[in-house]
Write a structure and sequence with these properties.
Elements: H1 2-14, H2 21-32, E1 35-37, H3 38-45, H4 51-64, E2 67-72, E3 75-80, E4 89-93, E5 99-102, H5 106-118, E6 129-132, H6 135-142
Parallel strand pairs: 4-6
Antiparallel strand pairs: 1-3, 2-3, 4-5
Length: about 140
C-alpha cells in the first residue's frame, strides 16, 4: 500500500493538487476492495468523510485516471486503474448485482494485444464487462 500511496501522491502533486484526508480515505477504501459500488464506497468511508467529498474525490480521481467508473445497469462501480491494480476482468449479475472476479485469461489478453497492434494502438488498455444472471439467481428463478 505504501508504494500505491506514493504513486497517488505523485499524481496529485503533478497536477498541483493537495494530498487531503478525503482523497487518502477514498483511495484506501478502494485499495482494500478494488471494485465497489458508490454506495459501498460511501459506507466504507463515513463517518470519516462526508458523502459530497466521496463524490468529488471519485470525480477527480476519474479525471486523473486513478479510477475507472464502470456503469452496471443504472448503478456505477468504481475501481482503481491499472496503475494501482493488477488488471482483471469480472462478470456482473444483472439481477442481484453480484460481481464475480474472473481468472486471468491469457488467450483473451493476447487477442486484445493483437488487435491493438493491427490498428497501431500503443499502450492499450481495455474494460471487459460480462453481464448475465449468476447461478444463485438462476436457481432461485427456477424454484
Amino acid at each position: 500500500m505504501n508504494d500505491a500511496l506514493q504513486t497517488l501522491e505523485s499524481i496529485l502533486r503533478q497536477h498541483q493538487l493537495h494530498v487531503t484526508k478525503p482523497r487518502r480515505t477514498v483511495f484506501a477504501a478502494l485499495y482494500d476492495q478494488p471494485l465497489r459500488y458508490i454506495g459501498e464506497l460511501i459506507r466504507a468511508t463515513t463517518p470519516s468523510i462526508d458523502r459530497v467529498s466521496v463524490y468529488r474525490t471519485v470525480e477527480l480521481f476519474e479525471r486523473l485516471g486513478i479510477v475507472r467508473v464502470i456503469p452496471v445497469g443504472w448503478k456505477h462501480k468504481i475501481e482503481l486503474s491499472d496503475t494501482f491494480n493488477k488488471h482483471h476482468h469480472h462478470a456482473t449479475c444483472r439481477q442481484c448485482g453480484r460481481v464475480i472476479d474472473l481468472p486471468e485469461n491469457h488467450t483473451l489478453e493476447r487477442l486484445i494485444a493483437s488487435i491493438a497492434a493491427e490498428y497501431h494502438i500503443h499502450n492499450p488498455s481495455h474494460v471487459l464487462e460480462i453481464q448475465g444472471i449468476c447461478t444463485h439467481c438462476a436457481q432461485t428463478k427456477k424454484s
